[in-house]
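To whoever picks this up:

The nightly regression suite flagged 2-oxoglutarate-dependent ethylene/succinate-forming enzyme as changed. Nothing in the input moved, so I suspect the structure step. Input below, exactly as stored in the fixture:
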Amino acid sequence: MSADARGDFSQIPILDVSGLYAGDDAAVLKVAETLRGYLENIGFLYVAGHGVSRADVEAVRSMSKAFFALPDEEKLKLKIDKNFRGFLPFAGSTIVTSSVAKVSKPNQSESIFFMHEVAADDPDVLAGKPLQGPNQWPDETALPGFRATIERYVEEMSALARKMVHAISISIGMPADSMDRYFDKPTTFLRLLHYPTQPAEEGLFGSAPHTDYGYITLLAQDDVGGLEVKNKAGEWIAAPPIPDTFVMNVGDILARWSNDRFVSTPHRVINRSGRERYSQPFFFDPSMDEMIEALPTCVPAGAEPKYAPVLYRDYLMERIDKNYHYRKGAAAAAATS
Ligand SMILES: O=C(O)CCC(=O)C(=O)O
Ligand SMILES: [Fe+2]
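Regenerated output under the current build:
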């Protein structure tokens, strides 16, 4: 594809990643080469041939449906906490940091976040580091098996994400394991989302146009549809559900890390299907303590990197504090203390 064709897509490609599981270097290289083109030109793809079973994806969706069907007072017992773990009520975020649209109306969704599990007595918690702490789980008697289902899925998605880290490293021209250390203690988010059907209203979205903050996102969606991805011409291209695939996209920190060789592409959700929509994005990001600095293979000889190095923690916290209503008070208090 020529440089001019960058961003010029009319559908999202499907990549079979089974080569990453084959234990054969040539197969891995082949996947990485195709992946490179997609990440450079589109920033989105469907991942097929991964190791996660349909049953495990659907088990999470069933738990998600059961959770959102609980009465509000039950859900609010898990109200999102200072560590960004728990239930975010309907219309609880407005993506004001969006670089792709002036967003003023809150997202028409409710959601619950599970991050990497950190014990209450972990040194990072005791040191007061941000976003470190235990997850909040629904009562086992209300939703039997919930925690085990989620934890199993997070483990499987993390394993897939680590395969993708290898493929990405190769595609960028580095050894397969050269980015591994950044993910020794990854920052992960599994977000279960519920989008009621929404009215047609200017500027109102299930998820307003945005780019993701992190490294990569791997999303499973139900059969309702409504996810759209913006191409260079400004057209919104549908990313309809395809059975047994995940929609994968580049986040801002990978785009920045790659000196904008890879693109963090805007996307949005509009659910006017008349049905309830459920989705489950998994965000796989570096350890909070890592400094993210342009990868040398992505900076042309003699050129300066486009971005200054940034601590992943600082980068992430700025976005979270701005976009989530419940944090406004907390962030303001922290800034003045
Ligand atoms: O629900 C979806 O399909 C997409 C959600 C999304 O873009 C996000 O949570 O960042
Ligand atoms: Fe997103």
